[in-house]
Amino acid sequence: MGNFDGSLVRSRSTAPFDLTEVASCVLDDRGRIVSWTHGAQAVLGYPAGEVLERPAARLLVDEGEATRVLDCVQERLSPEGWGGVVTVRHRDGRWIPLTVRASPLTTVGGDQHWLVVALEIDQAPWSQVNHSMLEQFLAQSPVGMAVMGPDLRYTWLNDAMERLSGDSRAERLGKRLREVVPGLDVDAIESTMRRVLTTGEPVVDFEYRGFPPADPHREHAYSTSFFRLDDISGRVLGVCCVITEVTDRWRSRQRLALLNEVGARTGSTLDISDTAQKLAELGVPRLADFVGVDLLDTVWDGQAPGTPPRGTPSRGTLALRRTGMKSVLANDADAIAAVGEVIAVSPSSPWEECLVEGTPYLKPVVDAEEDGWLADDTLRAARHLDLGLHSLMLVPVIARSTVLGVVTFIRWQRSAPFAQDDLLLAEAVVARAAMHIDNACRFTLEHSIAVALQRDLLPKELTSSDTVEVASRYLPAQATKAMGGDWFDMIPLSGARVALVVGEVVGHGINAIAIMGRFRTAVRTLASTDVPPDELLARLDDLVLTVSGPQREAALGASCLYMVYDPVSRKCVMARAGHPPPAIVAPDHSVTFPDLPAGPPLGLSALPFEAMECELEEGSILALFTDGLIETHGQDAEVGMARLRMALSQFGMPLDELCGAVVDTMVTDTRDDDAALLLARTQRLASDHVASWDLPSDPSIVAEARTLTTRCLGDWGLSDLAINTELIVSELVTNAIRYGAGPIRLRLIRQAALICEVSDASSTSPRLRHARTTDEGGRGLFLVAQMAHRWGTRYTHEGKIIWADITSATD
Is 0.70 surpassed by the pTM of this model? Predict the structure, then answer.
C-alpha cells in the first residue's frame, strides 16, 4: 500500500477500465449490506448510512421484484460465485444495467459473506466496442431484422428490412403484419410467432411467399427465422424475425420441380392428345393464364410433319390442330378453337414465323397498334384483346430437328409481363415434352400400321356352318393401346370337320403381329394336310426354331391351342402348347375346363405335345381364349377362370350376344394386354346327311359302289352330281382295292358340298401322276382331281382316307 500514490491513481483514472468506478459491497448470509464502498455510492447514489444493515435487493428494486431477483440469484449461486447482468434502480429512480460478479467470502468466525462487484455496462472495457459493433451490425446488415411485441406489432426494424419490404419504418411500427402486407399468408406466419412466444423454441427457415409493396406484380419468396426475446428477469419482450429473400432459390426449385413433373406426366402416355393436354395443364397457372398446344395436322394423324425446312418460307397457309389447352377461365372461354379443331396460321403472324424458323417468340407487352399481325389475325384479335391480352410467348415444339407445332403462352389476368427467364423456362418445358410428343406421334404411326396389318392378317369374318356356329371378339390392350399378337381362326377340314385355333405371341407391335401372321399361315397350311393336333403343334414348334432377327423374341414362348371337331362322331381332339385350356359349356349350362396336358410354349422345350379326345353333347359351346381375357392386375389365372365360368353360364342368349356379354364381364378398360375370345356352338350332322357302306376288297364291288352312290344321290336330290360322283367313287374304290388293304369303307356326306370318302387299312399314300398314252392305268387320281372341287388324303389310326369335295356337275 505504501507504493500507492497519486501518480498511479491518475494513470489508472485515464485507463479504459478505471477501478474507482467499480461499485462493491459485502453482503452477509441474509443478503444484508455490511460493507459499502465509495464506488458503490458513486454508481448508485446511496451513501453508506442509507444502505448498511439493510437488504440489498429491497433497496434496489421494489419488494415483489426483489423477492424474484433474490430467488434467482440464490438459485444460481455456487461455490465459485455467480456473474451476470442485473438492472437496478438508482437513488434518483432511473434504472441502470450493471455487470455483476458475486464471490463467496469466509470471515474469521467462519460466517459466509459475499463480495459483490458491479460495473455499469457502458463503462466496461469492451462495452463501447460491442455497442458500436452491434449498432453497425443492426443498421448495415443485409439481412432484414424486425422485432414484434407480444401483441405481434412491429416495435423495431432495421434498414435492410425497410429495403426488403419496400415501405418505410414509420409505416410499419405499431402495426401488425396483416395491416402492411395483406398479400402474405399472415395466419400461418402469426401462428408460428405465437408458438415461438409461448414455447420459447426458435423456428428456423420458415418459408412463405407473397407480393411485397416493392414489387407487387411478382411473387417473392422469403425465409424467416423466429426467436423469442426475454429480459434478464425472464419477462417476454417479443419475437425477433430475421428475414432473407430466397426468391431465386425458390424459383429454381420450382422450375426444377416443373421440369421433373413435365417429364413424368407427359411421358406416362403414348396418346398425342393426352400428352399435349398434360403439357397445357402443367403451364397453367405456373407460367401463364392460358396455354394452347397446337400441332401440325399431319402430326395429329401420326404422320411425318408437313412443315417446310427450317428457314424456308411457307407457300401458303399452314394448318394447326388444337391438341391441348388449359386456361384459368372456366370452360376455356378464352380459347379461339376447341380441342380437335383446325386453326389457320396467317403468313404474317408470329405463329408462322415460329413454325418456319423454329425459333421462340417473346412479346412482353402486346400493343394492337404496334403489332400489325393483329390486324390480319382478326380471330385472335377479337378474342384475346377483348380479354386483356398483354403478354405473349410462342415456343416451337421441336423433336429430332423437326418442328411439330407451337405452344402459345398468354397472360391477361396476371399483370406481370413475360420476361426472358419465363421464356427460358418455357423452352425447357416444351423441349422436354416435345420428346414425348414425338414418341406419341411415332407410336400412333406404328399403331396405325399395326392395326392395318393385323386387320389383314386376322380373319375378316368367321362364317358359321351347318355343324359349327361361331362368334368372336378381339380387344387390343387399353393401358398401352398397343396391338398384340393374339389371334384365332376357324379352318374347314375334310369330312365336314372343322379346326378351331387360338394363339398368342409374346409382346406387342409390328414384330408380334408379323409373327402372328406367320403362325396363322403355318397353322392353315398344316391343317390342310390333316395332321393331328399334337403333330401340328410339333411342326409349329419346329417353325419357331427357324425364326431369327427381331421377330425371334416374339416367337419364342408363343402359345397355341388347336382342336378338331368331327360333327359326324361328335368327337373333339385337342392339344395345346403353353396355352390356357378351352372351356366347354354343356347344354345343361355347366362349364368345365378339360384336363388337357399343358404342353410347353413354342420354341422353349423339346418335350412332346399330347392330345386328348372327348365327346361333346350336341349344342355344346367351345370357348377358346387368350390369357388377356382372364388375367388382370393383381388377379391370377385361376380367379379369372372362375369369373369366366360364371360369365359363360349365361347360356340362354344368342351366341354373338353371349360373346359380347362375356367380354363385357371379363375385360376392363385398364388391361395392359390384348384379349381374344372365340365361341363355337357345335351341332351333330343329321343322320340323313351321312351314308356309309363297308365294301369287300373285290374288284367286282366297284359297280355296286356306283349303284349305291347313284341311289343315295337321288334320295338327297343331288342327281345332277351323279355322273361326276360315280366316276370319282369308281376310281377311289378301285385304287383302294388295287393298292390298299381291307376293310374298305365308302362314305358320302351331304353338306354345302358333297363329300365322298373312301378309307382302307393301308397307310400308303396315293400319288397323282400323268400317265403316258401307252399306259393302261395311272389316270385314276388325275380324273378325280379334274372332277372334284378339291381332294386329299388324311391318315387315321386304322389307315388312311381319300376324300373329294364335289360341288357341281361342271366342276
Answer: no
pLDDT tens track for 361-386: 999 988 766 776 776 666 666 666 66
Note whether 682 and 466 are within 8 A (CB): no
DSSP designation for 782: H
- Could you count the other beta carbons within 10 Å of the beta carbon of residue 254? 14
- Pairing state between β 23-27 and 33-36: antiparallel
Q: What is the pLDDT of residues 303-339, one digit of tens each?
A: 655 544 444 444 455 788 999 999 888 776 667 888 8
Q: Which of 688, 757, 686, 744 has its CA nearest to residue 718?
A: 688
CA–CA distance, 301 with 444 (Å, rounded to integer): 7
**CA atoms lying within 13 Å on the CB side of residue 624:** 27
CA torsion, ordered 198, 199, 205, 211, to nearest 10 deg: -10
Of 58, 62, 3, 2, which is closest to residue 31 (Cα–Cα)? 58
Burial track 173-194 (b if 16+ CB lie within 10 A, e otherwise): eeebbeebbeebebeebbebbe
Confirm if 84 and 130 have CB atoms less than 8 A apart.
Answer: no
Q: For residue 536, give the amino acid letter.
A: L
Distance, in Å, from the CA atom of 488 to the CA atom of 808, rounded to the nearest integer, reads 32
Instruction: Determine the residue type at 676.
Output: A
- Integer Cα distance of 83 and 73 in angstroms: 9
Pick from 234, 339, 316, 326: which is nearest to 289 by CA? 326
Q: Residues of 137-159 as b/e, b for ≥16 C-beta within 10 angstroms? A: eeeeeeebbbbbbbebbbbbbbe
